[in-house]
Each structure stands twice: as structure tokens, then as C-alpha cells.
Specification:
Elements: E1 2-4, H1 11-18, E2 28-30, H2 37-44, E3 52-61, E4 67-79, H3 89-97, E5 102-104, H4 108-129, H5 133-137, H6 140-160, H7 166-179, H8 187-193, H9 200-213, H10 219-236
Parallel strand pairs: 1-2, 4-5
Antiparallel strand pairs: 3-4
Helix pairs in contact: 4-6, 4-7, 4-8, 4-10, 6-7, 9-10
């Protein structure tokens, strides 16, 4: 089994690193945010080998590159994306079932889309306003923008994955937004504060490309994307 938990901008290098060790019975479980990486991994391996996966954990990188786990809770979910799987799948799944914080899911892609919805909203909001959730919630104008942003992203996800109901996505995201601890900042905002790279292309960029492909207006998403794109240009000193 290979567990892929890199940032999206390290995915291609990670694939090259593990390729010599992967064979036809190797199970690959990615825990990246978003959904676009599934196509990349399916091309590198095979869809029957590549499971879906999500991780719910609050973490960040320290200045010296160590991963810091912040918060008390952590959960990993995984599941098959096809009816068939390599013969080794049963053994891998049995081993994972012995860990209390790892859950097998029948419809893992639905879980991935819901996580994608949440991370798109939280990373977009805290990086755009450059502060924590509690401060953003004190502003009526910011709150109005967040509502529009949530509605846009939910409608777009429903367009890409029709099995995902936009109304339910909106309602759940708004509940989660209101229930978050006031001090919460998305890991993308924490990376931004440290001057580190952010995976905006994989999160907001993918959705914006889909909006263009489906001829859908997404002005709030465009603003969030533009803010992150400019940050990366400044960080890299790239103004050509």
C-alpha cells in the first residue's frame, strides 16, 4: 500500500519516487485535498488501484519543515472507487480496519467532494480576508461575500458531480462555517503567513477552470483565485 499525503504541487515528484515500488497489486490511497489528483493518479497507475481518501486533521508546517498536528481530533476515510480491486485489497482493508481513527466508506467520492467544498470555502475565506474565521464573522459585508462564495462553489460542484446536491452542500457548509472555532485559520492561510507555497491551482483553480468550461459565472471564486494568484506571483518575484 502507498499512502499519498503530499501537497498537490509535490504530487508529480511523489509519483516518480514511488513508481519503482508499485506493482499491479499495490493499493494507492491519496489524502490530498481536492479531486483533480484522482485523474493524475489513475493515469500513473490504474483506477482499480487508486482508492479515494480524505483526512480530517488540523496541521501546519513549522518554519524548519516539521509537520505540526494542531487540535485534538484526526480522522482518515478511504474507499474503493470501482467494483473490482487487486487481490491484495482485502488484506490491506483488513489491516486498516484495526485502526479506530481510519474508516472505510462505501461512497468515498461523495466524502471527497464534501471535504473539497469545505476546504475551498475555508481556505478561500481566510486567505482573502487574511484573518481567522471569528474576525470574518463579525463583518456583515464579509459574511455576505462568504454566502455568495458558498452558493457559487456548491452549484459548481453539483454541475461537475450531479450526484452532489447543491442545496445540501450549501446548508452543510454554512453550518460548519458558523460552528467553527473563532480562532480557526485554514492551513493555506497559515502557509501564506509564513510565505510558503499554496495549492490554490489544485483547489480554487480547478473549480474556476470547470466554471469556464460550463459557462458558469463565478465572480466570488474569481476574486479568491486572483488574490491567491497575486500572492504566488509576489512570493516568486514573477511579474513577467
Amino acid at each position: 500500500m502507498v499512502l499519498m499525503s503530499t501537497k498537490s504541487y509535490h504530487l508529480h515528484d511523489a509519483i516518480e519516487d514511488v513508481l519503482p515500488f508499485v506493482h499491479s497489486e499495490t493499493i494507492v490511497i491519496p489524502l490530498l485535498n481536492g479531486i483533480q489528483h484522482l485523474d493524475v493518479l489513475d493515469s500513473a497507475f490504474s483506477k482499480t488501484q487508486v482508492y479515494g481518501g480524505v483526512a480530517f486533521i488540523e496541521s501546519t508546517l513549522s518554519e524548519d519543515g516539521h509537520i505540526l498536528h494542531q487540535g485534538a481530533n484526526a480522522l482518515m476515510m478511504y474507499g474503493r472507487r470501482t467494483h473490482s480491486a487487486p487481490p491484495s485489497a482485502t488484506q490491506v482493508e483488513k489491516a486498516l480496519s484495526s485502526v479506530s481513527d481510519i474508516k472505510s466508506r462505501e461512497n468515498i467520492e461523495s466524502d471527497m467532494w464534501q471535504k473539497y467544498m469545505l476546504i475551498t470555502i475555508l481556505s478561500g475565506a481566510t486567505t482573502l480576508f487574511h484573518t481567522d474565521v471569528g474576525t470574518i464573522r463579525t463583518s456583515t459585508s464579509a459574511g455576505s461575500f462568504i454566502d455568495r462564495y458558498i452558493n457559487e462553489v456548491a452549484r459548481l460542484i453539483e454541475q461537475i458531480a450531479p450526484e452532489m446536491d447543491a442545496e445540501r452542500l450549501q446548508q452543510k457548509a454554512k453550518r460548519q462555517w458558523q460552528n467553527l472555532d473563532a480562532s480557526f485559520k485554514a492551513s493555506m492561510q497559515k502557509d501564506k503567513e509564513k510565505g510558503q507555497a499554496v495549492e490554490y491551482e489544485h483547489i480554487q483553480g480547478y473549480l474556476l477552470e470547470k466554471a469556464k468550461a460550463y459557462h458558469l459565472d463565478a465572480p466570488a471564486l474569481q476574486v479568491v483565485y486572483a488574490n491567491l494568484e497575486l500572492y504566488e506571483q509576489i512570493r516568486k518575484g514573477d511579474f513577467q
